[in-house]
Amino acid sequence: MPSHPALRHSAGVSAPASPFASPAARRAIVAVLLVVAATIVFALIAGRYARDQARATLAVEVERTARQQLRLLDSELRKFRLLPIVLREFAELRPALTSGGGAAATRLDGKLKLLAERTGAPVIYLIDRNGLAVAASNAAEPDSFAGQRYDFRPYFLKARRDGAAEYFAIGTTSHRPGLFLARRIGSPARPDGVIVVKMEFDGLARAWRGDAGSTVLTDATGVSVVASDPADRFTTMRPLTPAERQVIRADRQFADQPLPLSRLREGTALRTAMASATLPAPLPGWRLLHVEPLAPALRSADAWSHTATLSFALIAAGLAGAWLWRTSRGERTAARREALEAEIAERTVDLRLANDRLRIEIAERMAADQRFRAAREELAQANRLGSLGQITAGIAHEINQPVATIRTLAENGRLFLDRARPERTAENLATIAALTERIGSIVSEMRRFARRGSRSLGPIPLAEVIEGTMLLVGDRLRAAGIALDLPDPDDLPMVVAGRVRLEQVLVNLLTNAVDALAGHAAPRVALIVSAGPDTVGLTVADNGPGIAADRECEIFTPFVTGRPDGLGLGLGIARDIVVEFGGTLDLVPSPLGGAAFRVILPRACDSSAA
């Protein structure tokens, strides 16, 4: 039977190709599936990680808050625990106990009231050996403790027996809860009474409310005695046994409070949804519990994980797109590889050349620094020689006088020998020896000052530095008629410096003072030494015209000077020298009314003190 033409036509046409048959389409599908799978895995991991981190961070924050609140509690306890110890030695307690009241108890009431007001204690009261309160800081108030019996209170019984007691309870008179701190008065064999200070925690609870979450302080039986939320106070962290409730009722510790189970106890739904920290309190068996809800932290963690997941999905999609784009381009040409390799080689050569240039520049900078240091040392040496030239005339005069005196004494000594007076000749020779020793000291100081100073630092006596400086510039000060105030050399400490360079600083400062005092009617210069534990201050002050206000900021700048013939280098060199010593040189107000420069140097250990 012949086939239908339409059937013959359809049989001769091939089916259309599937759109997923190409390699690019398959790679795209694989990429999409990988991105979706990776995003789901990342979302699960990120969510769990964020929640775990939120719980851990909140746990750390809760414990930190709990420790902070515990320190506040400990601070309050330390303050109030001292009161009964101090009051136990109060001289007026025993008269009030032995008199059984009367004027002695009345006087004690007033003093206890004043002490309570100053320390912030709610009430302080004195109980005799039989449990009767004979004096109290609130004796003048309607709810006075004076005249009340407390022989049933455990803190009274324990303090009378053991010497001290700390007991939390609701007051039978004031009906206010608090911690009763008691100390025995008298010997264990014959107690005279008990002094009691009551401490209330309302202020502490208010301070705790400033922190997030809730805080409770529980006693040894698990009863919440202090809480930031009033609803949590006088609740229990565990069911109390009938025996425990019987003891509490017998002692009237919590009055008629029902003491229900706390909403914050272990195992409750509320407690499960919170982060908590429990720390031992500074009272036997007491504990501090701080809790904060987990929900806000978990919400923040979920928001972070959602944002991170979205970011990851976008990045993964971008990477997948980049991968598809790269794989669709085919392999790279050898020319691009060669070009890249050539560029890398060129960059390597450039880096090597730049590194070589950097080494050369570093070497040049080091050489320049050495040249700068050498030039600065040459400049300091030139400054010393210049200063020596200025004071040479004065030193020559200082030497000429002893030389003339030596000549006169020698001639007189010859006459005394001719006259057979050897004792006078010996006196002249001794004087000649002393004068020659002084001339030698002056010449030695000039030679030391002219030499290039050593750059090494060490402990030197400040008295010797000042003495050497005076040998160099003393005659110039005397010739100018300047009154000089010097410190007592026996009281001067040791400093860390170089002797020659420190003398150069003092010579510069004293020379500047002499120049500033030219023409002054009553010139005066003072060297003032102030020693501290680690530093020594040396101030050179004068009563001259001082430094102009517009020059104070640039006085240490090189080539800035107030003298027509000055170079303006002395103060700059002096400051550089002091800085090398590890000290400072500054312009300060003069105690004499003129100008003053203060040198601060490191203090050296005194060998005599060591």
UniProtKB/TrEMBL annotation:
Topological type in the membrane: Multi-pass membrane protein
Keywords: ATP-binding, Cell inner membrane, Cell membrane, Coiled coil, Kinase, Membrane, Nucleotide-binding, Phosphoprotein, Transferase, Transmembrane, Transmembrane helix, Two-component regulatory system
Subcellular localization(s) per the UniProt record: Cell inner membrane
Chain ranges of the Histidine kinase domain: 394-605
Annotated GO CC locations: plasma membrane
UniProt EC number: 2.7.13.3
Coiled coil: 337-385
Source taxon at top rank: Bacteria
Record's catalysed reaction(s): ATP + protein L-histidine = ADP + protein N-phospho-L-histidine
UniProt GO MF annotations: ATP binding; phosphorelay sensor kinase activity
Transmembrane segments: 28-46, 308-325
UniProt-listed InterPro entries: HATPase_C_sf (IPR036890), HATPase_dom (IPR003594), His_kinase_dom (IPR005467), HisK_dim/P_dom (IPR003661), HisK_dim/P_sf (IPR036097), Sensor-like_sf (IPR029151), Sig_transdc_His_kin-like_C (IPR004358), Sig_transdc_His_kinase_DctB (IPR017055)
Main localization, broad class: membrane
A Pfam family it matches: HisKA
Signal sequence annotation: none
Function: Member of the two-component regulatory system DctB/DctD involved in the transport of C4-dicarboxylates. DctB functions as a membrane-associated protein kinase that phosphorylates DctD in response to environmental signals.
Official protein name in the record: C4-dicarboxylate transport sensor protein DctB
Protein species of origin: Sphingomonas abaci
